Amino acid sequence: MLSLPALRVGTLARRGVLGAASIRAAHGHSGHVATQEDMSVPRYYDKRSFPLPDVPFHAQLGTEQKALKEKEKGSWKQLSNEEKVALYRLKFNQTFAEMNRPSNEWKTVLGGIFIFFSFTGLIVWWQRVYVFPPKPRSLTDEWKAQQVKRMLDMRMNPIQGFSAKWDYDKNEWKK
User: Fold this and answer.
1) 150 pLDDT exceeds 60?
2) 3-state helix, strand, coil in the chain (%, to 5)
3) Mean pLDDT of all residues in 120-129
4) Are 155 and 163 in contact (CB under 8 A)?
5) In 10 A of CB 169, how many CB atoms?
6) pLDDT of residue 2 exceeding 80
7) Nearest to 79 by CA among 89, 92, 69
8) Are 44 and 55 in contact (CB under 8 A)?
9) Is the CB of residue 55 less than 8 Å from the CB of residue 43?
10) Considering Cα of 65, then 67, then 73, then 77, what sign does the dihedral take?
């Protein structure tokens, strides 16, 4: 005997709810399919190591740009400096000097590093205050002085060790 979900699938398929069109529409394919660029065709890019790209920066030219390209075929002495720059900008996006210009990205990187260090410092401070237990009393200067005195009284390592550097007659360290 068929279960209830199996009967529902049949009913939905007959009504067209589970058809191919409704599935495509549910998954975002409502007639508009994203196109993928053809990567076998040369593309424009600015690169310092390869300053002459295979294709111009502006592939489709407007009416003013086409008129300027026609004027380019004549004498360059008749062109103004603005027209020469406009012709250059048709072929290239940036000049070589603009490609070599230093950026301000180092400020962002340095700022991020300082933010990271300050956040880490806050975490270390919080751990020292709230997480770590208090220092043991054996790390105080008073305790260390008593420990040194006890080691000298016991004459520990009198040949080459700790007691060998203490002058017991003068009660001071040997010079």
Assistant:
1) yes
2) 55, 0, 45
3) 96
4) yes
5) 5
6) no
7) 69
8) yes
9) yes
10) negative
Q: What is the DSSP letter of 17?
A: T
Residue 166 phi, psi dihedral angles, 5° rounding? -110, 135
Q: 110: phi > 0 → left, psi -120 to 50 → alpha, else beta; which?
A: alpha
Looking at the predicted structure, is the pLDDT value of residue 23 above 80?
A: no
Burial of 162 (0-12, 13-18, 19+ CB in 10 A): middle
Total residues belonging to the chain: 175
The H or E element containing residue 166 is strand 166-167
Contact predicate 55/40, CB 8 Å: no
- Residue 21 · residue 30 · CB < 8 Å: no
Looking at residue 121, what is its pLDDT?
98
Q: Which value, in Å, is the radius of gyration of the alpha carbons in the chain?
A: 41
Distance (Å, rounded) from C-alpha 66 to C-alpha 71?
9
- Residue 14's φ and ψ, nearest 5 degrees, are -70, -35
Q: Who's near 13: CB < 8 A, 6+ residues apart?
A: 19
In this prediction, residue 79 carries a pLDDT of: 92
